[in-house]
Amino acid sequence: MKQKQIFYDYLIHTEEITLTLEGDCLDEVEKEELIGLIDQTLQQQTLEVILDNLPKEFHQEFLKMFSENPYNPHLLTFIKEKVTIDIEKVITEKASKTKKEILSDIKKSKKK
User: How many Cβ atoms sit within 10 Å of the Cβ of residue 48?
Assistant: First the structure.
């Protein structure tokens, strides 16, 4: 069964990381745990980007809506109406940087 996507998942593509881990000597449980940690890291950084750019008076409302339904695509609309930057671009850039760091760490660990 395919897992539901959080409203910003289409901006953060983790397939490259998942494919990189496929060739590792990890068992399925270890691989799933590692993917879970990577997803948590990306989620935490994405929420940080959002809250850093969303005016403080909207934080509580956003967090309430997010906690009730993180899959709601209207969350992005809510954010975009409140910020003055291209939040999708900022999220994508931050995720890309983080993914490069993660992939670099994976490649370094393979050389050991």
Answer: 11
* Burial of 72 (C-beta count, 10 Å sphere; 0-12/13-18/19+): middle
CB 14 within 8 A of CB 39: yes
Longest dimension (CA), the chain: 48
Which contacts of 7-11 are long-range, i.e. CB under 8 A and separated by 24 or more positions? 7/70, 7/71, 7/72, 7/73, 7/74, 7/75, 7/76, 8/46, 8/75, 8/76, 8/91, 11/46, 11/88, 11/91, 11/92, 11/95
CB 53 within 8 A of CB 83: yes
Mean pLDDT of 22-41: 85
Contact 95, 14 (CB under 8 A): no
* pLDDT digits 0-9 by tens, 33-51: 988 999 999 999 999 999 9
Residue 2 has pLDDT above 60, yes or no: no
Q: Where are the domains of the chain?
A: 9-111
